[in-house]
Amino acid sequence: MTWAIVCVCFFLKFAIYGIFITPLWDIPDESGHFSYVEDIVDGKIPMLGTSKMGIDVTHSWIAPSAKPGLNWIAQHPPLYYVVAAPVLMTARAASLSFDGQVRSVRLVSALFGALALLGIMLVIWEVTRNGMLALAGGIFVGCTPMFLQLGTGVSHDTLVACMAAWAAFWCIRWLDTDNFVYALWCALFVALGLVTKFTGLGMAIPLFFAMAYRLWTASALERQMTALRRCTVLWLVMFLPICLWMLRNFVLMHQLLPFTSIITKEHPKVSIGFLEYALTTPFWPATLTNYVGLIGWNGRGSGVLDWVQANGPVLRYFLAAIFFCATFTLAQACNHWRVRLANRNIALLSAVVTACAAGMLQPNKLSGLTCIVLALALLATLATHLPAALRGERKPWLFVTGSVCALFFSFVFYEHLWAEYNGVVRATHGRYFYPVLPFLIVILAWPLRGIRLTRVALFASLLAMLFSDRFFLHQALRLYGQL
User: Fold this and answer.
1) pTM, two decimal places
2) Residue 23 · residue 152 · CB < 8 Å
3) DSSP string of 57-115, one letter each residue
4) How does residue 55 score in pLDDT terms, banded at 50, 70 and 90?
């Protein structure tokens, strides 16, 4: 009941911001997303390279005299827009103004944001059986400035986070019960995430192979044909919808996964080494900073790019919280191999290291160090639990699978942007990691399941809410022109 009340409160907060506070078009790509919804309402499925922005959107977003350009958001699969279309139809039937129509559609993102938080709470509960820790995790994610902003606008990112959370929940239920129906529910939510945004492929591919491996190895020799049939059904449920969409793209555009390069001028690629890109550019620090918050987009609808990154106390606090969880997870994994220290001693050591790092380092350095520790924590978790996972033990399998999904997704994300490098570090949007966020949360939350640490985690999540609100009051709302 407490979880439901918290999620309702977050929905109301998202809705109030979306209706009364956040200006139109100050959500990432909101003008393109809303134009896509308008096309669906008008009975059209947009196609990248030919579909244009809505006339009313263009006039509101740029200027009354502006002519609609091509809609770059037409690259995305249609699920979010199909779900949002009835809301826009209802708003039009109620004769709402154009602004009222946009703000009505924002309620869809608010709803999916709240459902994503409920899914994250259930994921933590299923793994740790600690309700207070589940509550802390949901609050912490919900009050992250970037998540809060996305929940207030026309954006498919909260739907991606929602589908990922519920896919992880059903995956854990399948793991605990061996009920194949739950595995199919997991596959269904993964499939829905894929027909919302292509980025989910970076999570879906390793997850499918991990689930298929478990299905195969858990079957006796005489039952392996049954396991093969189940793997086939699992693949069909998980990937058939997105494969059909990719086939449609290939027939119409001769690309399976079209990108906006179709409608934008090609920039000259800059040659840079694969590792050199990470070592000489702020790629990973910018990604983590933007996960915490990249607020604004087009400067209160003026058509001028205008945004603010999370900075100051709010950035330090969120980075410190993530750094502590990653350090604690890494220390526990190392402790598994060496001398066995008590949990409280590991927590105290991690807290001291976190305090020193957060107090002495500049935010960009702290962000970069946090990325390194996160990567090491995932690798250490993978190495620590791999032998038990190969023996079929349930929680080790989950931790190994979560680590592999997060690492694989990170590699694909990095490789794609490295290949597109044109001299400017771009598209380092931490929100792209929402497909693997539930698995990351499980790995980082597991060491906190003790009673004392759980209370600290809940207090820290409530404090995070204060930092987030302070950031919006002192910076985001000033950017919006509300203060």
Assistant:
1) 0.94
2) no
3) HHHHHT-TTPPP-B-GGGGS-SHHHHHHHHHHHHHHHTT--HHHHHHHHHHHHHHHHHH
4) very high
